[in-house]
Amino acid sequence: QLPTGLYKKILVILHDSVLPYMNEPTLMMDFLTVAYGIGGAISLLALNGLFILIHQHNLEYPDFYKKLYSLLDPSIYHVKYRARFFHLTDLFLSSSHLPAYLVAAFIKRLSRLALTAPPESLLMIIPFICNLFRRHPACKVLVHRPAGPADMSEDPYIMEEEEPSESRALESSLWEIQSLQNHYHPDVAKAAAVLNQSLSEMEDDISGLLELSGYELFDKEVKKKATDVPLEFVQVRGLFGKKNDIFAEHFSLD
Question: Which positions, given as ranges, span the membrane (predicted)?
Fold first, then answer.
């Protein structure tokens, strides 16, 4: 059992500074699978090494997607390693051979967590979800269900279920993204409105959005050229807009 800080230091560099130089990288299987099961940031960091072992050294991990699904909690939109996590998750969900129920469970859980996510994360996760729909057309029933959310008395999706196959995600609808179409940030509302139209076949490139920060969004808004917007048709007279009130006698707007 290693200290948490040491786990993080090792896992950050393991995939590119250790595994490529080992004669038998498979010796790290037990270490990485144990680290992956710890949870939190340590599990996120273990994904890099596990991906190399699965992709290049035929590691079999039957519960891999179940564990990946369990890592999706509200903190994933705020953690330091968010870009790395979603880059790898995008790779893991890229196979067209994944069952529809599994992908639908990921789409639904990501959408539910997006309700409390900051704008910079939403501008990344909405195109991410759109890409999943392009790869797995069977999941489009979440968007194009007849009558949509209005046809359901309650959402059948079980958020607390740890097993994706038992979450009933395919029976649900994507009302969360529909609610984001009324988001206070105009860019988020515009991105969410894309699902109202038919998606293009070309996937969105999310690589430039993975490390988008709140500071960059704020800086972009500040640099926009302001335009004069008329707020009143009738010119205001008096402090509170009334012509003959007591405030108009003692206060002037000039």
Answer: 31-54, 85-107
Domains identified in the chain, total number = 1
Q: Is 117 left (phi over 0), alpha (psi -120 to 50) or beta?
A: beta
Task: Report pLDDT digits (tens) over 154-206.
Answer: 888 999 988 998 999 888 888 999 899 999 898 999 999 998 888 888 888 88
HSE (CB half, 13 Å, CA atoms) of 44?
21
The residue to which tokens 């302001």 are assigned: 226
Q: What is the 3-state secondary structure (H, E, C) of 61-125?
A: CCCHHHHHHHCCCHHHHCCCCHHHHHHHHHHHCCCCCCCHHHHHHHHHHHHHHHCCCCHHHHHHH
Q: Please give the residue range of the domain that contains residue 143.
A: 63-251
> Which pLDDT belongs to residue 149?
57
DSSP per residue, 167-194 = S-GGGS--HHHHHHTT-SSHHHHHHHGG
Question: Which two tokens mark 181?
Answer: 């179409």
Collect all residues with Cβ–Cβ distance below 8 Å to 67 and sequence separation of at least 6: 36, 37, 43
Closest by CA to 47, choosing from 20, 83, 23, 100, is: 83
29 in a structural domain: no
Q: With b meaning 16 or more CB within 10 Å and e meaning fewer, what string describes 148-162?
A: eeeeeeebebeeeee
Structure tokens at 201: 């076949």
Residue 195 inside a domain? The answer is yes
Whether 67 is in a domain gets the answer yes
Q: Which residues contact 243 (CB under 8 A, 6 or more apart)?
A: 237
Domain assignment present for 30: no
